[in-house]
Amino acid sequence: xxxxxxxxxxxxxxxxQFTQVELRSLKSKFVLVKNQNGKFxxxxxxxxxxxxxxxxxxxxxxxxxxxxxxxxxxxxxEIDFETFLRVYLNxxxxxxxxxxxxxxxxxxxxxxxxxxxxxxxxxxxxTYVTHINIYLADDPFLKQFLPLDPAxxxxxxxxxxGVLLCKLINVAVPGTIDERAINTKRVLNPWERNENHTLxxxxxxxxGCTVVNIGTQDLVEGRPHLVLGLIxxxxxxxxxxxxxxxxxxxxxxxxxxxxxxxxxxMGLAPEKVLLKWMNFHLNKAGYEKTVANFSSDMKDGxxxxxxxxxxxxxxxxxxxxxxxxxxxxxxxxxxxAERMGCKRYLSPKDIAEGSTNLNLAFVAxxxxxRNGLSTDSKKISFAERMTDDVQISREExxxxxxxxxxxxxxxxxNVFEDVRNGWILLEVLDKVAPGSVNWKHATKPPIKFxxxxxxxxxxxxxxxxxxxxxxxxxxxxxxxxxxxxxIVAFLWQLMRFNMLQLLKSLRSRSRGKEITDxxxxxxxxxxxxxxxxxxxxxxxxxxxxxxxxxxxxxLSAVEPRVVNWNLVTKGESDEERRLNATxxxxxTRKLGCSIFLLPEDIMEVNQKMILTxxxxxxxxxLQHAAEEGDAALSPSNGNGSTTYASDASPxxxxxxxxxxxSLCGEISSLSIDDEALDTTGSSQxxxxxxxxxxx
Length: 695
Hints:
53% of the residues lie in helices and 0% in strands. By secondary structure, the protein is mainly alpha-helical. It has 5 domains: 12-98, Recoverin, domain 1 (Orthogonal Bundle); 122-240, Actin-binding Protein, T-fimbrin, domain 1, CATH 1.10.418.10; 249-384, Orthogonal Bundle (Actin-binding Protein, T-fimbrin, domain 1); 389-507, Calponin-like domain (Actin-binding Protein, T-fimbrin, domain 1), CATH 1.10.418.10; 517-629, Calponin-like domain (Actin-binding Protein, T-fimbrin, domain 1). Helix 15 (302-311) packs parallel to helix 17, helix 21 runs parallel beside helix 26 (484-505) and helix 28 runs parallel beside helix 29. The radius of gyration is 27 Å and the shape is globular. This is Fimbrin-3.
């Protein structure tokens, strides 16, 4: 497996100001202009800068030209790439000044990360270091490096080999990574380190982190703002994991006993549920204000005082409310919380300054320590009846993570609630089928009038018909009403369309053949057979897949070093099958594939998830061969089977990302030269294409 080589800048400080994704994007734009004009001059900068998202809304072309004129008397001066980067940073400073940039920027990664604000909060760093020291103190491998000193850069240095981040993901969502797949040695070679970071990023996506503009090279270099941003997301997911009706059915007390109110609660983001919980108790305590955020509304410490007094009156200090100094009041609040058993992560100054991330973490800690909710069995039973069955929950999770991985503007917290106004589905459709949405006829949330939601959803169904989806019995109102079975069926077709879209874009070079499940199945069987193994499957419903052995043989066939056969079981018992399934998922992510299935999907042979897993491995293999410049992936097996080949030029990502981590594994990015595929597969496989009516 070849290791990724990023854009290298001779000035280390300059390189540290950019992510690899940003460097590659800027380098490609720089080279394009240089190739067109024969050289790149200061005069070329304004027209290029205004095309960049970071500047387009902040500085005009004339403003950029005026700023440059103050430093360069001759606009025809030719510059190299590094000088261009310095000019870029100078423009950032000007744009930040125009924005009135905050000194204390949040380190949570958003849908897209720019270098406009690369400062990190020392308070947040100290908090996350404390969290790591507590939760990973007993880890067999990491305990030799702990505790970390929050006053140093130990956290960034330790993160460079990927082990810390992988372990932290497992703390946040236990069982996400099979730790047998993590390379744990005191000194790792570059290939092993890259594997760990690839495993980390793909696993982070699988628990809901947004990692659009971060690559393995950024983690290898220990970029502080990116490492801290990823860590903060992971910790946030851990702290908010139980703040939902499924994990904490007592939350039903926050609403009236009606289906509509409970459904509304189920659709709220965990942060919103936490605010609703906090205001529920503040109202009971007689606090007159409504807390709407975790920053300015928390600065004076009064909300905390009322909240803790109602949750733990036995530890109440009557002096807290009488104290005039916000910092002193915050100190008394923290003393109160500590007596309740809440871990002390933030300082009085953090509360007084209104640190959003740290206040959110603190309120979550209070919730976990003592939520003060009723244990009324009738209400809890009502909440449990409202939650989904196991299969529906698993499918909702898969589609939610897949949608969030596409990099659309909206973030999905609950698929069945969030898609009901149609907007998110329109965003996804526009991502997987660019130009398909008529935005003039779409209404963006918040949507006051119900008929506007129906209009959005009607357009979703209309586009589905145009894309030849099976939408029998599906109307826009079904989506508005939250019909889960029909929504799941439509989303599966969207995911499938996304998986096959790049194949269609390659048809101009391959006689326009359509790729079927049979082609993917034949490729997998052929790959395993050519590797010298005998396991074969009849379909993606083949019960033998439950042992996991076929996938381990397939993974070993595409990359022999990735599977440690000493860790593989025979798959004869449920426990052995689970061990194999968890290992398969981690090894596949370690290889470079972004997948969202669970071990149960392999053990129970979920046809849809099995198909996406196989397609993702197939894409990685073909893409890897294209990068290596191989014309053929496998020789003829001597019995007339087709040779599989890949196109010499990698296909673009359907989501528009340049990042190879997005290209390599996304279900959305399957690319094959179908001239080399055997499309004569068995009729049995041809009949297994999943339709909406059968989901």
